[in-house]
Amino acid sequence: RVRLQLSFSFPPSLRAEPLNDYHAEYNATFAFMFGPLVLAAVDVDSDVFVPRGGDAFRTDPSVFISRNSTTKLEFEAVGEDGTKLRMIPLREVMDERYVVYFMTAGTKPAQPAVHYCPRSRPRQDAFEVQSPEVEEAALVSRWSAPSLPPREGLAPAGAADTERHIVSSRGVHWKLQGDRVVAKAPAPRGAMPAEAPHALALAERASAISSSLD
Question: What pTM was estimated for this model as a whole?
Fold first, then answer.
């Protein structure tokens, strides 16, 4: 029985990859690869680049890209106007400015405006934080009295002798006296339960707030 050992080698080669976009204006937008590696031009200021050799780069990028090192994956791309770009695998890019997709037609399609929110309308103050206008009287702390109930069926404003219970919360009884909301502790100081001192303090604070809002 004869045993055969076969060895295959698939050296990487350069190829062009068009942008997967159905818009006609992006038909000339290309990225370039060396085998499975995406190449990026580093230390560049623009993504507009017309390769040397006309449209031949679409099927054979080697007409304008050449490897300039035998030990490192470094490449050089030459433009139609003689401009040279340094290209390295995208995975090796660190802090450099880089480009992957090139506008090879020499022009760049119109770009949509970018705002803070994709759904926001274009305006000059798109990045400014707008402070809402709020009346100071409406800025009541979370310990304030509950909202007044509907006035239907209540005594006329100013009738201080009229008292109506509204709600009890955290040991504090909120009552309506005439047209004012006041808070009362459930028991005198001498017979306070464990949580009553806190409740009384809340009541005193709430009454002060109610008075300040009159």
Answer: 0.50
Along the chain (214 residues), what's the average pLDDT of each consecutive run of 10 residues? 86 91 85 95 93 92 93 94 94 93 88 62 50 50 49 50 68 72 62 53 63 55
Spell out the long-range contacts of 124-130 with Cβ–Cβ below 8 A and sequence spacing 24 or more: none
Task: Enumerate residues 6+ apart whose C-beta is below 8 A from 14.
Answer: 32, 33, 34, 60, 61, 62, 65
- If we measure between CA atoms, which residue out of 154, 160, 151, 204 comes closest to residue 180? 160
Of 180, 187, 182, residue with least CA distance to 206: 182
Q: How distant, in Å, are the alpha carbons of 66, 89, 177, 186, 207 from that of 200?
A: 84, 71, 18, 8, 10
Are residues 173 and 146 in contact, defined by beta-carbon separation less than 8 angstroms?
no
CA distance 102 to 117: 27
17 class by beta-carbon count within 10 Å (0-12 exposed, 13-18 middle, 19+ buried)? middle
